[in-house]
Specification:
By secondary structure, the chain is of the alpha+beta class. The strands form 8 sheets. It has a 5-stranded mixed β-sheet. The chain has a 4-stranded mixed β-sheet with strand order 2-11-10-9. Strands 5-6-8-7 form a 4-stranded antiparallel β-sheet. It is globular and about 75 Å long.
Length: about 600
């Protein structure tokens, strides 16, 4: 395929540029950093928890029986692709998890550590300027062909040239890929302090080069592809259902990173276009497991004889993972949202306290950080090391970054929303708006302040419509458009929206994925996760600093600084969070006694014998 030659050419150019940046007397990476010894696992900072040869993760049941079927629901308008790595189409649920193995596997009870799966071991020096993966000789694709270093190289090249833009950003610091033997491959990195690269390369799904050499990567459609993971695609009905069947002779089933996992013989997803219908289908026994995202449903719908007699179990299971940010996201590419004062003003129109009491049964906590529910979240005024980091940008930042502890507007007290709308109007006047004939008008352009909120979940209208009505009191014309999930996905990919409700998830170890969220290079990259169009040189620099953090303590301080700058940029109207997973399941399902810090993982569950 021509993509191989193109990718090789680009990598050669990058490698040449990197060489030009060094002096003629520079040492090789091995000389500069010393020899790298093979290791079974790697931690982002410090040492991995699990020793070489560990039998299984602590949070699984190694004796969990294999067998049975689990049925689940997806609320969406179907799927039209079996390729989850291409930006076109909507991929079927579960494809990347069940079909494809990776070089390494992360544990769920550490901030960020990874252990060998396809790779038996890895070698990386102290400065992590390169990584070499040593592949297991018994690693196999589903057709019995061995997984080789050529497959790893092919996967990297096809994903970064023809795959989703995410991969190009995620692996942007890879300068050179060298196949040293059928079981050995090396990745050299550009000059950087990016310590995360060996771990995130381990996350890369490995695709079979021999399968794709006669096929076009973006045109696979609904032809079941070749994988190497614990399941293969079984029966499916286009857009309506898909079943994964456990691979009986799965090559990795006895490894410590797989023991006690992937226990169901079959995993079936059925698609529903309406969540209310899906909930009733669950209670009728049409599927087995449900994560509840609606506070109203959780408070009112999980009762009756089947819950009383224990046939259906409903649990709110505590977790300790970062909840990230959910909120009304502004598309700052739109002129109407280009002024941060306007964005800040609109936040005063959202009455969280009213919504939490009247819609959510008091279940939620207001979110005030992009890294909520973790030690990465900023709080109070910047001080110590965090302040030192921000001082370098003082002339480029709003003084609020240094003088105000960001808190989203609240409506507690007697004046409540009335006081907030008054504050909003003052901000809007400072941004050049005035009320004329009951409408908020830009005095320079004569244009009214109007925008559209794009939704695909009808249930969210009960949150959006009160927000719309509050803003109408300021003379702002807000329209709400409900579209099907496929149209929604396409419009968001192309940034064809004014405002959306968006979740921005985070991990306990932020790194390269932050480029995808915030870096200016992704403002116009179709399919990127820079939904808000953040384009700020300070943010760009802080993202690079986060990626290059030398240790955990410094990472925390750099992330807090980034968090604070983003919050004062008013890119979202923050919503709420819950530090529990609300789940319901039929009692023939069983789960391990221990729940890791990242929360429940259904792939550790099993069917009662």
């Amino acid at each position: 395929m021509t993509s191989k030659r193109t990718a090789s050419y680009l990598i050669t150019i990058l490698s040449s540029l990197a060489l030009l940046a060094t002096t003629s007397t520079a040492l090789s990476s091995e000389q500069a950093s010393g020899p790298a010894e093979p290791q079974h696992g790697i931690a982002m900072h410090g040492e991995p928890k699990y020793p070489n040869g560990f039998p299984h993760f602590d949070y699984v049941n190694p004796e969990a029986p294999k067998g049975g079927t689990i049925k689940m629901a997806v609320v969406a308008n179907g799927f039209d692709s079996f390729n989850p790595f291409d930006i076109r189409g909507v991929a079927a649920a579960g494809i990347s998890t069940y079909l494809y193995d990776t070089l390494l596997v992360s544990s769920d009870d550490e901030p960020f550590s990874a252990y060998g799966l396809i790779a038996e071991s890895l070698e990386t020096p102290k400065d992590r300027s390169y990584v070499t993966f040593n592949l297991r000789e018994n690693a196999r694709f589903h057709d019995g062909e061995p997984i080789t270093a050529e497959d790893v190289k092919f996967s990297f090249e096809i994903l970064t040239t023809k795959g989703h833009p995410f991969f190009r950003n995620y692996y942007a610091d890879v300068a050179k890929v060298t196949v040293e033997s059928p079981q050995r491959i090396r990745f050299d990195f550009r000059p950087t302090m990016n310590r995360e690269l060996p771990l995130i390369l381990g996350q890369m799904p490995i695709l079979p080069a021999h399968y794709w050499e006669t096929r076009e990567f973006g045109d696979n459609g609904l032809t079941p592809p070749m994988g190497s993971g614990p399941y293969r695609i079984g029966d499916f009905e286009a857009g309506r259902s898909i079943t994964y069947e456990r691979v009986e002779d799965y090559w990795a089933q006895d490894l410590g990173v797989r023991k006690g996992r992937f226990n169901f013989n079959k995993i079936r997803y059925d698609y529903y276009t309406d969540d209310t219908v899906a909930l009733e289908a669950f209670k009728a026994g049409n599927f087995d497991f449900r994560v509840e995202t609606s506070a109203k449903n959780w408070a009112t719908a999980y009762s009756g004889s089947k819950f009383d007699n224990g046939k259906i179990i409903a649990e709110a299971i505590e977790h300790h993972r970062p909840t990230g940010m959910q909120g009304f996201a502004f598309n700052t590419r739109r002129e109407v949202f280009s002024d941060p004062r306007v964005r800040e003003a609109l936040a005063y129109g959202f009455d969280f306290e009213w919504a939490n009491k009247n819609l959510f049964y008091g279940q939620y906590t207001r979110t005030d950080s992009y890294f909520e529910n973790s030690d990465l979240a900023s709080s109070g005024l910047p001080q110590g090391r965090e302040l030192e980091i921000l001082e370098a940008y003082r002339d480029q930042l709003s003084k609020d970054v240094f003088t105000e502890n960001y808190q989203p507007p609240v409506t507690d007290g007697q004046q409540g929303l009335r006081k907030n709308l008054k504050t909003a109007l003052e901000l809007l006047r400072s941004a050049g708006y005035a009320i004329k004939d009951g409408k908020l008008i830009n005095e320079n352009t004569g244009e009214p302040l109007a925008f559209e909120i794009l939704l695909f979940q009808k249930s969210f209208e009960r949150v959006v419509l009160p927000f719309k009505n509050n803003l109408a009191k300021l003379g702002i014309n807000v329209s709400v458009r409900l579209v099907d999930s496929n149209q929604y996905v396409q419009r968001v990919r192309e940034f064809d929206f004014d405002m959306i409700t968006q979740v921005l998830p985070q991990s306990d170890s932020p790194g390269n994925e932050q480029r995808e969220y915030w870096h200016s290079a992704n403002v116009e990259a179709v399919g990127s996760r820079n939904y808000m169009g953040v384009s700020d040189p300070v943010v760009d620099d802080l993202v690079n600093k986060v990626i290059q953090a030398p240790d955990r303590e410094e990472l925390v301080q750099r992330v807090r600084a980034l968090d604070r700058v983003l919050l004062q940029g008013h890119y979202v109207v923050p919503h709420w969070h819950l530090a529990k997973d609300r789940v319901a399941y039929w009692n023939h399902l069983q789960r391990p006694e221990m729940t890791p810090k990242n929360g429940i993982d259904l792939d550790n569950w099993w069917v009662r014998p």
